[in-house]
Structures are given as C-alpha cells and as structure tokens.
C-alpha cells in the first residue's frame, strides 16, 4: 500500500464506505492523510460543578441526586438527571437514550463530558458522553481525540480507524521543504508532523505540527504566485488608452468630489493602463469606501478609446444592480457608450442578441457573472476585466480571455480589510492600491453591543424603522435547529420574528442551502422593499446595495470573527439615512466583551483587521477559520500572520538564489509547485 492506493485498499473499507469517502473528496490514501481533523476533544481532569461555564465543553464527576426521569414523545425521548458533587448540582439531559435510566440508576460516581448551555431554568449539560463506571475515563484522560468533518453514514470512529492505517503509508522522503528551512524554523520531521496532525500527544505537539504545514502552504502559495507572475505578468500592453475629456467632464459634473484616496488610486490605474505592460492591480478598500466609481472610471477609459471593458459580479442580482447603476450614469451624464448585461438565466434569444452586440463592438461595457468568459462570448476588442475577490482570476481565466484577443488589463476589487504587509504577500501577483478614506457624505453607523435582554427593545426599534419606510437585516449563525447548540437559527427565527412583527411587515429568510435562483429572488424582493426584514446567515456578506436598509442586528455575535462582523455591518449605512448595527450576545466572558467593544467604537475595517489579528494571535488553536480570500487547508492569514511573513521572506530568498528552483535541494518543492500550477490551470476558480 502507498499514498496513491485507493481508500478501498484499507482494511475495513468496503465499496459503500469508499463511496462515502469519495463524497468528501477522499479518493486515495494520500488524500486521507491530508484530511486533517477540524478539531480535537481534549479529555481533561473533571472540574467542580460550581465552576462550569455556559458555552464550554467540560468534564464533571459526581453522583445522581434524586430520580432519573424520561419524558417526551416516543420519537424524541428526553432523559433527565441531576448530578451532584461537593460544590453544587447541575441538570443533565440526553436525547433518545432512555436506557440510561437503568444504567446510571445503580449508584456510584459517574463522569460526564459535554457542552454546557443556558436554559430558562439555569445551566444545563446537554447530551454528554458517559463514563460509567468512572474508571473508564482514565483510558481517555489527558488525550486529544481527533474530530473530523463527516458526511451522513460515516462515523468519526470509522475515519479514525482509516487514518491510523493510512499513516503507515507515509514516506518521509516525500518532504517538499528544503532541509535548511526545516532546521531554520525548528520544524518537526515530516513523518512525525503528519502523525501529530491527527494524533498529537499534547497541544504543544499539535501546534508544532500545524505550524509546519501552515508555513508549507504559505510558502508553496507565494512561490506559485511569483513563478506564475514571472512567466505571464510582463505581457506587452497592446491597447492605446489616451486621456479622454468626457471623463474630466463626468468627474466635474458629479454631485460630490472624489476623496484624495480615490484620486490617487485612479491615477495609479490610469498609469497602468497607459503603460508598457498589461495591468494586474488589486484595489483594496473598506466597505463603502467608493471602489465602484473607480472601477467605472476604468471601464470608461477603455470604452471611450474604442475598446471594451467587462465587469464580473459573483451573483446575477449584483450583476443586474451594477448594470442598472452604470446605465443610469451613462444616460444621466451623456456618456456615449452602451452597456450590456449577460447572465446565465437569460433566454437563449436574449443571449444570442447580447453576443451579437458584444462581437460587433456596439456594447462597450459588458456586465455579468461567469457567463462573461464562456466559449460563446466573442469580444470585439476586450481591453479591461474588472472582477472582485470572489472571482480571483486564475491562469485558466486569463488564458480563456487571452484566447479572445490580446491579454486584457485585470483589476481586482476587494472589500476584505487585510493589513498591508499581509496583502503584499498574499496578492504577490498583483500591484496593490488602497482606498483608505471614506467619502464625506457617508453617515457613520451607530453601533451597540447588548445582551439578549435587549431583544424586545431591538424589535420595537426595528418596527419603528420599518414604519418610517426603512428595512432591516437580522443575521443568525445557523440554518437549522441543533440539539447541541443554542445559536439562533434562521428558519425558526424567521417564523418567530414574522409572528412578532405582525402581518403588515413581511419577513424573508435567506441561507446558503437555497439554490442560487431562490437566493437571487429573495435578494431582489428585499431590494424592492417587498421584504422589510431579512433574516439571513452570512450569505449576505457579499450582497447587493440596499440603501434603504438601516438596521443590522447580529444574533450570537460572539460566534463570528471581527473581520466578518465588520463585513456584515457593511450591508447597512449605504444610503442617506442614519444606520444602526446591534451586536447581540449571550456570552458573559470578558474576552467577548473586549472583542465586540472594538466594533462598538470603530467603523474602520483596517483597524478592526489589525485588532482581530492582535487578539486572536497564533495561539488560537481551535479558532481556525478561513479568511474568505484563499482556500487553505490549514493556514489562516490572520491567525498565522507571523508564519506568512516568514514564508514571504524565505520565498524571496529562495528565488534570489535559485530563480527557477532548479537546484537539487529545491527539486521536490519545484515538482510540487508545478503540479499545483497544473491543477490550477485545469480548475475554474469561479
């Protein structure tokens, strides 16, 4: 057996189980080795019942106090007991486990491990793991048990057994890190690090292993960018783009002045588009900083010089909004260009007519979704593509567009605030511009951090806003009810809120499990004020502008990262009305208060990103989240900023000494990067 063997070659994995692994993207033994746990159960010493806290998973030991009861329906029986130690008593409940009444009713010390939640009658431990007799806990005490993401029909235990076998196939000679880097940073040897990623002996061992692979991901990513940039970024600029008087007249006719930051970025873009090589530029600006007008100016420069510009949006609703806004500006300011909308849901006839106007050059500005780069679209003379971070342009997309003519200028717009030092490393294939100044006509959002006792007051405030013609968002972290989490969930919450608000207020529900067409329909209804209050998951983090929305209430705010909370808050404050953001939390911890107070007192996304980085730090072992920009398996740009900067420095040093990675010590690293680049060219990043 080797890492290329099918998972079906492992003992105990039959055809049915192999298909379940394939459903999770695990086809080979090597895939299984790289399928890292999403967290760990750490079996620590029992704590006194008087010290248990809401939201924490803890171990307690004690004896049954009073009788054990079983209630509920036949389909959902709830077993309840009270566990008592020398410091206090706590209520414990299990779902669908009535047999525990007989098992635990025999007396003696019981050890339970589970999550503590707050119910109406106080703290409750929900559905804990049972160790009876108590001596059984000794087998797991002080161990870290991996917890894997699963699919229906596959148990965590089955994955653990398969991974243990797969680890026997690990070949230490496949380590891609040059020896001098491993020594420089004190990394564990490859084979040991892989084992510690799944079955660490301690937190410290896991952190050491994780740091090694996070660093490796960053190093490979940065080197890949640099090598791709060297091979393609020096493409000659074949487009003659002269300054046009119509643009100056347009700017002087606007009812506001561009900020100094917008003017600076516009100068940088203009210099790129008029320079000797094609532009590859990232414009990074906080929510509401005015990136769209800069993108429009870039499209005008292309269109007024006889070329075409394309603007790609992540959803059809957003594409349509961009189209309507651009058409409005072209007409209002007498600009002699025609805009075209192209989306997947258009009829065959509509698409055919749009293709004709695009290929003839009649349409100079084309707005749409990924349909913009499909085979049937032939451009008359495409000089510029404006995209956003949801559509980072990979090699595949650049080749697709290059095949339609000369390599166009690429402008990437990002509203994700990243400290500049990290952005320079992450977007190494792009030049970076930053709009770090808000337009003067923006009214700052008023923020408040409150506990759940404020909810009724918040509902009254929302009713008042709706009565004045405004609209509201409510964000919940979950889609459906969970037996183990108290987080507000979208579907039940929207039904409850609809009853609370009354029949004259229309409450909508939006979440990621809906089909795109359904999501677009709900967002379109909200944009037209057919829905007054929208209850949603974070799927609206990147959404359309609804200037009429003035209230954002985020339930369980403690469950989101600061940067994500700031992005969500950016859905309001987009019109001429005062807007409000209510961060609601059930947590009483000082750490939560400190985090949310940062949002309470600042609307500056770059400051918030820096504080998020400072507070979380590299020690946040199980708070690993994706940045929203890049899909790393292990690494996180905020949590692992130090590793990212080290990888950036090392990448620069490696390429200075060995620009093509042809030296023997870099050969395995080069082979791995070449494979990654080939995969990128085969995949679509849309």
TrEMBL record:
Keywords: ATP-binding, DNA damage, DNA recombination, DNA repair, DNA-binding, Helicase, Hydrolase, Isomerase, Nucleotide-binding. GO terms for biological process: DNA recombination; DNA repair. Residues 272-435 form the Helicase ATP-binding domain. GO terms for molecular function: 3'-5' DNA helicase activity; ATP binding; DNA binding; hydrolase activity. It catalyses: ATP + H2O = ADP + phosphate + H(+); Couples ATP hydrolysis with the unwinding of duplex DNA by translocating in the 3'-5' direction. Its EC number is 5.6.2.4. Residues 454-614 form the Helicase C-terminal domain. SUPFAM superfamilies: Nucleic acid-binding proteins (SSF50249), P-loop containing nucleoside triphosphate hydrolases (SSF52540). InterPro entries: ATP-dep_DNA_helicase_RecG, DEAD/DEAH_box_helicase_dom, Helicase_ATP-bd, Helicase_C-like, NA-bd_OB-fold, P-loop_NTPase, RecG/Mfd, RecG_dom3_C. Belongs to the helicase family. RecG subfamily. Plays a critical role in recombination and DNA repair. Helps process Holliday junction intermediates to mature products by catalyzing branch migration. Has replication fork regression activity, unwinds stalled or blocked replication forks to make a HJ that can be resolved. Has a DNA unwinding activity characteristic of a DNA helicase with 3'-5' polarity. PANTHER family: ATP-DEPENDENT DNA HELICASE HOMOLOG RECG, CHLOROPLASTIC (PTHR47964:SF1). This is ATP-dependent DNA helicase RecG. The gene is recG.
